[in-house]
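Quick log. Single chain, no ligands specified.
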Amino acid sequence: MNKQKGFTLIELLVVIAIVAVLSVVVILTLNPAELLKQARDSNRVSDLSTIKSAVSLYLADGQTSWTSSNTVCYATTSSAPTRCGGYFGATFVTTSTGSATTTNTNGTGWVPVNFAAISSGAPFSLLPKDPINNGTYFYGFAATSTYNAFKLAANMESIRYSNGGSGDVETTDGGTVTTVYETGSMLTL
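-> predicted structure:
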């Protein structure tokens, strides 16, 4: 007697149903929206590190003239609230100039540092902007000519990188504001 081996239609449908249920569970567990937020937060940390290195290179190269005072903060968005969203101390006010939101590296961009004055040239062609860049998520910069010090800040949006998350960078950065990520040479600005 010759029996053919194979799967029945019911067996195939059961396997397809099990795979579909497992796929839904995996998608719900991974939470794609949270993963996108984490990716943007990782980009924020990287961008601020790049700008911090560039400003430090600017200062190390002997360039010491800031075009900013210790009462003005600069932001990547024109809709930044007062004190750049609380990123900086009570004496700071957000600049309202339209040019401050540009990505120019010649001192007219949102970071008022002429990176083109560095003897080896600007370390990047354009200043980075926050991936969302609105009134809630943006980059902030403030400096003081008194100490040639500066601070960069950004708000994290993912549960992981925010205050209290498993990869919390807001409270562990050494800064004074526990609701934003801060980096620079003077985190008390």
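Residues 38-184 form one domain.
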